[in-house]
Amino acid sequence: MAKLFDIMGNFPFKPEDKKPMLIRKQDYSTALYPPNNAFTSDNTFTMITTDTFMLGIYELGPGGVFAPLDIHPGDESYYILDGPVVQRSGNGQFAYLETGEGLFMPEGAWHCCHNFSDRKARILYFITPKAWSEQIPPAVIPTDEETKFYKGPNNDALPNMRDKIHDISRQGCTDDIGHWPVDAKEARETGAVYAVRDFEKLNNVHGTSHPMLMRFITSNDYGHFGEFILPAGGYGPRCSDPDTHKGDAALYCVDGPVTVNLVELEESFVMEPEDTFFIPAGVSYQLVNFEAKPVKVVFAITEL
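Now predict its structure.
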């Protein structure tokens, strides 16, 4: 539809034109990334790229990899829509991620991704506050001598990561909101990357009158990313308590359909699976489930 660089920060609207918007999957912007070599590119679908975050999906074919290594001036979080995939970090970390699992990569972490399976892999990504600097892809890429991997030529001379990676398997609590899976500022200094397995997500309950399960993959000063799971209704539809956020937000429908009700605007929109909804800062919304099954959406929120 357009070059990735051309839409950066301005899709599907300019920052000054933000408004609540349902974005159907057929309206996503598509591109190869990196754009100059289809053999080592992923198929990228951009849903939203504005002044506060970027939300998109990339696909890797069986046996595929996107290369060379990539880097962002913001934190990046993953939700694996269809796995497994192996995420490689330039510091020597390799994360094997199954469907439904997540990943936290602090800003400045060099990375690429492999699909060693016999089926297409799909990854939902959230980058905040900024996805790329002035050049896409980066102009300077680390060499083999500057990264770590099995029998890498310069492994011994590069930083040892063993003491810089924390165990995140403990049960979290409400006080961890804003600090999950680790202190993000420390991770940005060390470059440590964290796979967030299903049992390592930070669980909480959104609302008391109409409770909804909230599962954080990441939660820090740059943004919050995870799952809303709204149960099925009883005699009527099940809805969440209304909420507003200080920052911009987006919802991606994994299991639906689910209705987004804009409480004060008295407007509602039905999200089908793979649709996205943009919610500007300060707009009150709630989720409504008219189905006889739980529904699931991934949330991406810049500030709670």
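Residues 256 and 295 are 5 Å apart (CA to CA).
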